[in-house]
Amino acid sequence: MHIAEGVLPLSLLGAGAALSLAGTALGLKRTRQDEIPIAAVMAATFFVASLIHVPLGPSSVHLLLLGPVGLLTGWACFPAILVGLLLQALFFQYGGLTVLGINTFNMALPALLAYAACGPVVRSRRRNLAVAGAFAAGSGTILAAGVLTAISLGLAGEAFLPAAQTILLAHIPIAAVEGAITVAVIGFIRRVKPEMLPTRSR
Amino acid sequence: MACFPRKAVPLLALLLMWPGISFAHGVNLFCWAQKDTVQCRSRFSGGRSVHNGTWRVLDASTGDRLLSGTTNSEGRFAFSPPQQAREEHRDLKVVCEASMGHKDSWLVRAGDYITGLSEENREAESTPAKTKTGGEVAAQSEAVREETIRRIVRQELAPVRRDLAGLRETGVGIRDVLGGLGYILGLFGVWALAASRRKSQ
């Protein structure tokens, strides 16, 4: 899912960087002081989750945990994912510094959408609804990030449909796993500390 | 808190049993010249081969595509540099790509794949003498000997260079993980500090 350096044209890198910068600025502005520790924990989770990966076809996919990151941080997912990706690029050589912007956007946008769409659902009193919402957030973010990555590669000249097909096929198993992990995480938080879940005030 | 360990067990078990857990990502390419062909090996940094990845050979100076193909199941491929590239002493840039934007490249210098290139250069540099004196003949045979030694050393060192390239692939260690977590703590600490100052003002 991390696009490597030297694959995308300069215009796309610039657009990605601008969008991520705007998202990060909004994230920094809209995050309350008491929400910063959660954002830090989720950034750390995102940073480490990428080390667990599974070989598939010619490439490999790894956990991203965008669902929990989005649901628990809201707008702060932009700074959290930006920091996570920056440190992954520096320490693990994933992606790279020039593609940091576009990679951040491709992962943070689905996380933010999951927060907007599934946030109210996972707080629902009906347990089944909450489970469905958490699963949709966990798996949907992975597939959406895959589509955005395919669009980025498509704009860079790689044939869109085969790229999208490869990426989506490779990510279906991981989407299912991420959905299950998100259900487990959200279920645990609902029981132990429900106030961590998204509220309307954010 | 009492329910925490019980809840965490299935998750932990899932992560530990996850097939093929490895601690790296991204493609590493290594190429070495062997006689007239260039051998290449591509791997994900976790050690797994890049199966069915695509490779291209480009002219390093112009970027023109000279050759292309796919890697075998062991992530290996070999090519014979085109005649034109040989004649013009072109450096070659080998690019290996596994889908989803993972790729790496390796520069093969003309001197690596053209046997006797440095010897030819030396001859071209020296003034063309119609009749060679005894000293010139001795110098030339000295040059030939030197080139032979060079070639043997290059061939003998190929596995060492391969191993050195392998060291580059050692992947992620606990130090990287802890370092990254430390940075996250620090960066978000700075953010929290700034937020608290803003609030108090």
Walk me through the structure.
- Chain A has a two-stranded antiparallel ribbon with strand order 1-2.
- Chain A has one domain (10-196): Orthogonal Bundle (Arp2/3 complex 21 kDa subunit ARPC3), CATH 1.10.1760.20.
- Chain A has seven helices and two strands; from the N terminus they run ααββααααα.
- Chain A is globular.
- In chain A, α3 (66-73) packs across α6.
- Helices cover 71% and strands 4% of the residues of chain A.
- Chain B is of the alpha+beta class.
- Chain B has one domain (27-169): Carboxypeptidase-like, regulatory domain (Immunoglobulin-like).
- Helix content of chain B is 46%, strand content 23%.
- Chain B has six helices and seven strands, in the order αβββββαββαααα.
- Chain B has helices spanning 4-17, 83-87, 110-113, 117-125, 134-167, 174-200; strands spanning 27-34, 37-44, 54-59, 65-70, 76-79, 92-98, 102-108.
- In chain B, a hairpin with a 2-residue loop joins β1 and β2.
- Classes of the chains: A mainly alpha (202), B alpha+beta (201).
- Chains A and B meet through α2, β1, β2, α4 and α7 of A and α1 and α6 of B.
Question: Secondary structure elements and their pairing?
Answer:
The complex is a heterodimer of chains A (202) and B (201).
Chain A: H1 10-30, H2 36-49, E1 53-56, E2 59-62, H3 66-73, H4 77-92, H5 100-122, H6 127-155, H7 160-192
Antiparallel strand pairs in A: 1-2
Helix pairs in contact in A: 1-4, 1-5, 2-3, 2-4, 3-5, 3-6, 4-5, 5-6, 6-7
Chain B: H1 4-17, E1 27-34, E2 37-44, E3 54-59, E4 65-70, E5 76-79, H2 83-87, E6 92-98, E7 102-108, H3 110-113, H4 117-125, H5 134-167, H6 174-200
Antiparallel strand pairs in B: 1-2, 2-5, 3-4, 3-6, 6-7
Helix pairs in contact in B: 4-5
Structural class of chain A: mainly alpha
Rg of chain B, alpha carbons: 26 Å
Q: Round the mean pLDDT of chain A to the nearest integer and report it.
A: 88
Order of helices and strands of chain A: HHEEHHHHH
Q: Major sheet of chain A, described briefly? A: 2 strands, antiparallel
